[in-house]
């Protein structure tokens, strides 16, 4: 646990660059080599990010009974300390973090499933989080068009499959207790298409570039003020026939409380994830059969959370 890790210099991608070909080449290189990169000039300004972290801290500082009233249902709401274990093989009692999920606002059915703290307790919370959702989504949408280019697809590819107008996006607020001895988030790769991550600057995030190499080598992802950290998820790895890698990562404790916001972007659940034509050939045939995006994600979620019934009993026993 206490071993020192080297710090990585991940590529920095400028989303405002007008040279989209060179940007898409850099993205390709970053996704092949690391599965992770920094995104700058993404349109989420730093003052607003700070405000969102302040609102997030206000929620997590509420008395536990106010928070558990909003316990996660339909993948939305509050998950208490230790209730989640990202690495099901770990012997720990669960990851020392709390989180709060907000689901897509893109359609009324999905938006109506969201839970919100009462206005009396936190008057600015809902508007701040809705605005944060919209801003990160629009950065993610712009990024996906350059990712499409980087894969030799039409730049509106993800738009055409409705990934942009009807994304299965989730915003997840996180607070790590920082307690020493346990991983804040145990080693995992994200399940979906892409993840956009912001942190409050407290270190802890590490990646393992080669998941098959033993012993594993972990490297620190340092904080770059104002940048969003982007990583490739397993579904994108599958879509690209492993040309892009979904990289193993974890959050190590530093003894300090740490906040982050993760934004998971997935295609609509009825989208068929089938190897991109540009990622296979006769000598490199598709490694995975086609699968519905929703089926794939449900399976992955079940492995982490079990059923809602199991979640309830784990909350009661904490
Ligand atoms: O908080 C972080 O820095 C990483 C969070 C993460 O990896 C996740 O929620 O999937
Ligand atoms: Fe993750």
From TrEMBL:
Family note: Belongs to the iron/ascorbate-dependent oxidoreductase family.
InterPro entries cross-referenced by the UniProt entry: DIOX_N, IPNS-like_FE2OG_OXY, IPNS-like_sf, Oxoglu/Fe-dep_dioxygenase_dom
Species of origin: Pisum sativum
Keyword Metal-binding in record: yes
Protein name: Fe2OG dioxygenase domain-containing protein
UniProt keyword annotation of Hydrolase present: no
Superkingdom to which the source organism belongs: Eukaryota
GO molecular function (one): dioxygenase activity
UniProt keyword terms in alphabetical order: Iron, Metal-binding, Oxidoreductase
Start and end residues of each Fe2OG dioxygenase domain: 166-267
Pfam (any one): DIOX_N
């Amino acid at each position: 646990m206490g071993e020192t890790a080297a710090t990585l210099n991940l590529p920095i991608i400028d989303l405002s660059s007008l040279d989209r070909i060179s940007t898409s080449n850099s993205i390709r290189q970053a996704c092949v080599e690391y599965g992770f990169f920094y995104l700058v000039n993404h349109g989420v300004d730093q003052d607003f990010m700070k405000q969102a972290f302040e609102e997030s801290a206000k929620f997590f500082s509420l008395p536990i009974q106010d928070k558990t009233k909003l316990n996660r249902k339909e993948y939305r709401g509050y998950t208490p300390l230790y209730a989640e274990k990202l690495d099901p093989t770990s012997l720990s009692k669960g990851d020392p973090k709390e989180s709060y999920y907000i689901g897509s606002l893109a359609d009324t059915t999905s938006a109506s499933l969201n839970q919100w703290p009462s206005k009396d307790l936190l008057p600015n919370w809902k508007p701040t989080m809705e605005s944060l959702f919209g801003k990160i989504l629009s950065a993610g949408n712009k990024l996906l068009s350059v990712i499409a280019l980087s894969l030799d697809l039409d730049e509106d590819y993800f738009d055409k499959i409705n990934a942009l107008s009807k994304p299965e996006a989730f915003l997840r607020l996180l607070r790590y207790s920082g307690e020493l001895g346990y991983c804040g988030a145990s080693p995992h790769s994200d399940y979906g298409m892409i993840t956009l991550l912001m942190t409050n600057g407290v270190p802890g995030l590490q990646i393992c570039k080669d998941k098959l190499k033993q012993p594993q080598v972990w490297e620190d992802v340092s904080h770059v003020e104002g940048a969003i950290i982007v990583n490739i998820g397993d579904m994108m790895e599958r879509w690209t026939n492993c040309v892009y890698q979904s990289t193993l990562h974890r959050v190590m404790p530093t003894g300090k409380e740490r906040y982050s916001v993760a934004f998971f972007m997935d295609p609509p659940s009825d989208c068929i994830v089938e190897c991109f034509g540009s990622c296979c050939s006769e000598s490199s045939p598709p490694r995975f059969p086609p699968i519905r995006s929703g089926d794939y994600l449900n399976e992955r979620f079940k492995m982490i959370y079990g059923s809602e019934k199991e979640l309830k009993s784990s909350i009661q026993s904490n």
